[in-house]
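Worked example 2:
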Amino acid sequence: MKEVHDVVRFDFRDAPKGKITRYQFEIAADGLGYPIKIPLIVAHGNKKGPILGVTAVIHGNEINGLPVIQRVMKEINIETLRGIVVGIPVLNIPGFLRETREFNNGIDLNQKIPGKENGNRSDVYAYRFFKRIISQFTHLIDLHTASFGRINSFYIRADQNNPVAKKMAQLMGPEIILHNKGAKGTLRRAAMELNIPTITAELRDPYKFQKKVIKNGTEGIQNILKHLGMQTKKEIKLNKPVSCKKSYWIYTNQGGLLTVLPGLLANVRKGEIIARVRNIFGDIIQEYHAPEDGIVIGKSINPVNQTGSRIIHLGILK
């Protein structure tokens, strides 16, 4: 097993050149006083170039990105690498260990960034990893999946008004690219506000490893490394994505047993039936129709539906 170095504050440019080095970044301490450490894999090329960060598991149950980062880092040719690649397989250590989406105080970390230096547990955790790690990057890829009870297509969220982020999104080869700036508090929005071109990759479904999308994600990041001049590998030709100008979730207004009809990537027409709700006796008590034409980016697969539950994530095509 390779040596792992403990660090509290760390400039990635100080990592040894021509090597891939493993670190444990001490970010906080638990209730016993034991350190909470974020794993870092740092590949430092012999020549200057960008500092690309690849992060995963900011939501503790979204784990497809973890093996993507492992594969990307193993396949880097350190002899030809220009710049630095930093892989962070798990950002939300407490959530990952508890097998929950949220941090250990019940808060979604991806609504707290850039955090607060003096705040509650999630505030401080978010502040430290953003200030001490993320702010050093010149480019960022943040890997996600759907959460429990839902499934996603392989899609990218990106502000396509930023030409670098737009190109990164295209190079990932997703099924869909969704244009938006990102909500306040998200890692992508906070990084973009520091002029770090950032994309969010949604790699299908929660709490499982899915071989195809792991392969897709790995190849997409390799394309970005090639495009940024960091690696010399030939660009991999991937699918041409569908582009959406906006999207929104459709919710239920009636509780009961939910059946969502269209599949992922289905094109739905205005007025088309997209879901039915039945009562406990099996009677249909509500039907839902598409409010406009669009494509299914994600959908609920949980039949237990309280009023106000999600039905489909509808993308509106350009």
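The helical segments are 65-75, 93-98, 121-132, 163-171, 187-192, 211-227. Residues 211-227 form the longest helix (17 residues).
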